[in-house]
From TrEMBL:
Membrane topology: Multi-pass membrane protein
Classification of source organism: Bacteria, Bacillati, Bacillota, Bacilli, Bacillales
Full protein name: ATP synthase subunit
Cellular compartment(s): Cell membrane
Entry GO terms, CC: plasma membrane
Listed Pfam families: ATP-synt_I
Keywords: Cell membrane, Membrane, Transmembrane, Transmembrane helix
Transmembrane segments: 12-28, 34-53, 74-91, 97-117
Amino acid sequence: MSELHLMNQRYFKYIIYLLAIYVLGWGFTEYRDVFLGLITGTVCSLFNLWTMIRGQKRFSNAVEYGGKTGSLGMLSRMAAAGLGVLISLRYPEEVSLVATAIGIVTIHIVIMIDFLIQTLRNKLEER
């Protein structure tokens, strides 16, 4: 498996774990609006990750086989983030807008944390 494929699998796994924690928080705490906002934003973030992976695959296939490279899907990722925000604006009592915004950037936080972990792991293996 390629390194990019392994990274994407790790990201999916981490996001699914976070979603499970958010669902437990939504079900068992009194901060239902915050956790529902986190769930909404993180689902948008997961969709954005999926569209980015799909765009990467199409781009690499186009480069490898000499085809045309299409869009990487920026408009659909922006629309997904906008949809998450619209949901939180439509139902402000049930879904926290701030938590939705935090959930939308969750994948970027996961990528940075994974990068740090992998860098530290590689430095420890070199010793």
